[in-house]
Amino acid sequence: MESENKVFVESKKRMRFLKVISNGCSQNRRSKVSAFPQLHRLHSLSQPAVPSFGIAFDIDGVILRGHSPIGGSPQALSRLYNHLGSLKVPYVFLTNGGGVPESKRASELSKQLGVNIQPQQVIHGHSPFKQLVNRYEKELIVAVGKGEPADVMTEYGFKNVVSMDEYASCFDSIDPLEQYKNWRLDSQKSSSKTSISSQRVKAAFIVSDPIDWGRDIQVLCDILRTGGLPGTEIAHQPHLYFANDDIDYQAVFPSERLGMAAFRIALESIFNRIHPKPLEYTSFGKPKPFVFRNAEIVLKDLLPLLVHDPQDAKPGNIDNHCFKTLYMIGDNPAIDINGARQAGQPWFSILTRTGVFKGKENHAEHPADLVVDTVEEAVDYILKRECIL
Q1: Distance between CA atoms of residues 219 and 171, nearest Å
Q2: What SS3 string covers 297-363?
Q3: At a CB cut-off of 8 Å and minimum separation 6, what does 327 contact?
Q4: What is the pLDDT of residue 315?
Q5: Containing H/E element for 377?
Q6: 294 and 128 in contact (C-beta within 8 Å)?
C-alpha cells in the first residue's frame, strides 16, 4: 500500500512538473524553460509536425556586412536545421537588395553561412518583377543596375531584355561623358544594335543600385521622355519600376550608403525639371505590406520540406495552415520594422544593432517589438519563446 501511494505521489508530481513546463512555453516565460533542461528533449519530441511560426531575415546589416557574416549569423542559422542538416524551422531572406538571380544568391549565401539554402528562401526586392512577365514577356525592356540585371529578368521569363550597358552602347554619343571615363562597359550579347535602337522600350526596370548614375539618368530621361525611342520627339512615358525605395543601407563602410531611393530622387528631380509631366513610377520592396504578405506565402510553401509524415504533408493540411507568429529580423527601423508593423498580425518585429540602427533604446518613430544586439540573440529569443529547445 505504501508502495502504491509512493507511485501515486510521484505520478502527481510529474504531472505538475510537465504542466509547469507546458504553461511556461505557452506564456513565453523563458525562466521556466531554462529551469528544466532535462525536459528539452522530451518537449522537442512533442512539437507539432508543422511549425506554427516562421522567420524572415534581412541580409545587409543583419546577416552580412559586405561579404562577411556578422552577429553570429552562421551559428544562428545552423540552429534552424536538425542534426541531419534538414530544415526544421521555415525561414526566408527578405531583402531589398539583389542584382543576381535568386538561385545564385542562395548558392552564395550557402557558402558564406555554412548551411543549405534553397533559391525559394531568397526574396529579393526585384522578385515581384516576375509577376509582370505576362505584361512584358516579348516587349523590349531595359534592366538597370549592378550585378546581372538582364540575367535576372531573363530568368523570370522576359524574352526581350537588354541591360543598360548594352542599350547605351547602341546609341552613339548618348552618354556625352563616355570619352572621359577610364572604363568601358562592353556589350555581353550579340543583339543587333540597329534592331535595339529602332525598337521602342516598353518599360525600364531598376533591378539593383545603378553604378553610373550620370549615364543612367541621362539615358532613362531619353527613354522616358520620348515614349521609349531616344532621339525622337516627346511622347507618352513608358512604365518605370524600382525594386525598392531604400534611401540608405548598411554596407562595409561605417556609415550608411545611399540606396536606390536616392537614385530615384535624383532621376525624378531632373526629369520633372525637363519634362512637362511629372515622373510616373512604381516601387516595390519593404516596407510595402504586400511584400510581407508574399513572404508569408513563401514561408508556407516551404512547409512540405519540413514534414516527414505523409499525412501532415497532404495539400489540405499545408493550405489550411496558419502561422501564429512571423518574425521579421532587421536593422533598419524605417524599412524592416516599419514594414512589419504595417503588415500587422502575425508579424513580430526584432531590431538588431549591427546595421543601420545602433541606438541603446528602441527606435522612437518605428519601435520594434524587441531590440537585441545581434541576429544570434534574436534567434535564441525566438527558439526559447517557441519552446524549440
Answers
A1: 10
A2: HHHHHCHHHCCCCCCCCCHHHHHCCCCCEEEEEECCHHHHHHHHHHHCCCEEEEEECCCCCCCCCCC
A3: 53, 54, 55, 56, 347, 348, 349, 350, 378, 382
A4: 55
A5: helix 375-385
A6: yes
Q: Please tell me whether residue 240 adopts helix, strand or coil conformation.
A: strand
Peptide bond into 346 cis (omega under 30): yes
Torsion of CA 116, 117, 120, 122, to 10 degrees: 180
Q: Tell whether the model's pLDDT for residue 358 goes beyond 80.
A: yes
> 318 pLDDT band (50/70/90 cuts)?
low
CA proximity to 209, closest of 147, 116, 128: 147
Structure confidence at residue 38 (pLDDT)? 40
Distances (CA, A) of 321 to 7, 53, 294: 41, 10, 15
Instruction: Record the cell numbers describing residue 10, joined without a space.
Output: 510521484
Distance between CA atoms of 317 and 303, rounded to whole angstroms?
Answer: 10
Average pLDDT, stretch 118-142? 98
| Number of C-beta neighbours around residue 235 at 10 A | 13
Residue 96: exposure state from Cβ atoms within 10 A (0-12, 13-18, ≥19): buried
Alpha carbon distance 323, 55 (integer Å) = 11
Q: What is the DSSP string of 101-170?
A: -HHHHHHHHHHHHTS---GGGEE-TTGGGGGGHHHHTTS-EEEESSS-HHHHHHHHT-SSEEEHHHHHHT
pLDDT digits (tens, 9 = 90+) for 166-180: 999 999 999 999 888
Strand partners, 11: none
Continuous segment of H or E residues that includes residue 376: helix 375-385
pTM: 0.84
Nearest alpha-carbon partner for 59 in 303, 382, 375, 389: 375
Residue 66 has pLDDT above 50, yes or no: yes
Q: Peptide bond before 310: cis, by omega within 30 degrees of 0? A: no
Q: Are 175 and 184 in contact (CB under 8 A)?
A: no
Nearest to 374 by CA among 382, 366, 364: 382
Question: Quick check: 71 and 344 in contact, CB under 8 A?
Answer: no
Separation between Cα atoms, residue 138 and residue 131, nearest integer Å: 14
Q: What is the CA radius of gyration of the chain?
A: 25
